[in-house]
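Minutes, project check-in
Item: structure for the 368-residue chain
Input as provided by the requester:
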Amino acid sequence: MAAARIQFTVSDVKVNTILVATAAMNQLSTIEFRRRREDDWKDLENLCVRFEKNGWKRIPAKELENFGALYRRTAAHLAQVRNRPKEKRLEGMLNQLLTRAHGHLYRPTANGFWARLGHYLLHGFPEAVQHFPRHILLSALLLVGGFFISWLAVNQNPDLYYATVPIGELRSPGASPLELQESLTAGRDSSTGSKTVFFGFLWQHNVKISLLAFALGVLAGIPTALLIFYNGMLLGAMTSVFQSAGLGTAWWAWIAGHGVTELTAIVFAGGAGFVLGEAVLWPKNRSRAEALNRAAKPALAVVGGTVVMLFVAALLEAFFRQSEASNTVRFLVAGISALLWLAYFGAMPWLKARRDFATLNTDSTSAP
């Protein structure tokens, strides 16, 4: 027994020694990985700063060529870091650096407004959205959470509706099914001019909400969270009223056509606000002002796109929603809208990555 106990102890020491040695080697590997590559990262960041201050015309051609090589090498480094589970912080830093550099490297060749706008819509906006999945997911969860909490609460106690929806709203638990039905068909016989004025009002109103959700992020993201959650509560309370009156299908058909685009845009704006909130709460090794300044540009790339999305949503709401389209057609339009947005946000960055893959792959094999 004594011999067995001694042997077990010796084996245990060996195992612990091996584990400690392996951890030390991994730590050394991580330090060496950073040491051999951080010069490239610093050079790339310095060039980004120079481009932002002085533009391209004052940068020598040789440095412009080096900028492309640095970008591709850093992209290769990011791919390597993603295979290291404990390097999430470094992965985030490289991701942010590449996002910043990407806007300079793949700028539009023409300097005109329309060329820049086209480049932004085709590449800048969908790529910016893909860079903030956590923040956008948080925004979506708050919206959905607000919806279900309010929906359940009003189902249980209709009087709670008045604690959520502003006073004076006619679509309330006290309205008859006929009055609720008429609210869904109101405006269908309006003139094109009236619908155009309504479109302008809707767009302006929704853009204000979007910009507010973004800007309030500087207050640690708390007001942004409350605003997104409250919008979900409004939708949930009204859904409960229409479903209780037996008009659930008509209500969702009325909402869905423009709602897919509008609610997605609001969620994106909330996500951009959370990007600012994160910079305020966790500035890492920077001052809060510097962290906020660095976070603002990529977040604004998301918010700018929501303005365009809300333009589309306002068109659908003012003209299509107030049409004689059947419920089936309305749901069909909603489904097509969802598919088109999914294709846009998924395919555009994928096509861009596919186009650059050959060059990236060539440089990644020679990365230090």
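Outcome recorded: The longest helix spans residues 2-54.
No further action items on this chain.
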